[in-house]
Input
Amino acid sequence: MTYHPKSDFMRVMMERGFLADCTDYQGLDEALVQGVVPGYIGFDATAKSLHVGSLIQIMMLRWLQKTGHKPITLMGGGTTKVGDPSFRADERPLLTPAQIDDNIDGIKQVFAKYISYDDGDTGALMLNNAEWLDELNYLDFLRDIGRHFSVNRMLSFESVKSRLDREQSLSFLEFNYMILQAYDFLELNRRYGCLIQFGGSDQWGNIVNGIDLTRRVLDHQIFGLTSPLLTTSDGKKMGKSADGAVWLNADMRSPYEFWQFWRNTTDADVGRFLKLYTELPIEECDRLGALEGSDINDAKIILANEVTTLCHGAEAAAAAEATAREVFEKGGIGDDLPSVTLTLDEVGDGISIVQLIVRSGLAKTGKEAKRLIAENGAKIDDAPLTDAGLMIDTSALANPIKLSAGKKRHALVKLG
Output
């Protein structure tokens, strides 16, 4: 579309590739020019950390604050008890209130790195929808809120339709989720003057529901803005790697492994990722993204450093880069590599190399480790590892052992 925004926030969203769709470009743009606008994203507490798949939304909130507006991070203490059915093939396992609270504590640590929760006009708010959802009276809710929802329309949403088309069960519990999410937007507008809900494009139906409900109940105009559902250029879902989700909390994915994930970005994605996940000027992102041959590796290191600095701090980024140079360029053992520390009892008379590869996270199973060795993909201290029956004893562990799977994944094994 050829809309030319007046507000800094809309300009950033459009220039940097954050914008998939908006319910009213011009209306939202006008509101953003007139004063401080609160906007929110809801995050269900299904794990102790968010992963890279949520980072595009976190960056949207960061830009909202940087352009003079107020971010709201809404923790789904209430909605997590139901579970979002959007585009899922099965029902989420239900978590206990204690597990949900524990997960919320973990997720909160991420946000504080990206946005500022101060007392100023643009200071972010951390809220929990359990505050209003836990207190709901079922009959009152049905009468006051439920009557505004058409089941026919709810069944037409792609997220519901795709589940029903595959003849997979959709429980009544899950069916309620979109009503609760719509109600969140209504409450945030009523209590905090919140005007925008952000989300991935798979949330479009849920966001539109909230806008419609708020118009019917409060007669207020509010807005929805979605980001593209990101896949890498080779078609993989953003946030996943060969060894699972790329978590944002350091205790679930080390800063070195996080840095390495970005360093391994496919050439075709570098420019786009620099615009979305760093704050480098657009022209610089375009210049770096256009590099070719071995020069693109320099751009990938800049990407990895910038993203890791935002998430884990400048020191962690510098340490990760130093370790990578030590490991890849000089063939050494970097201090920051993922490591496994074994006790004397664990080693005993000897521990198999296959077991060590699994323990170090370079393979998920013994079978996978053996295949890695058979296909010449494993190394021990940078030398090819060909014997799957090799046993490692305590004398071999007098110095740390470096294990490698392919060219990019390494781990240290040492005695505690």
Notes: The first strand starts at residue 21 and ends at 22. The two ends are 60 Å apart (CA to CA). The first helix runs from residue 8 to 16.
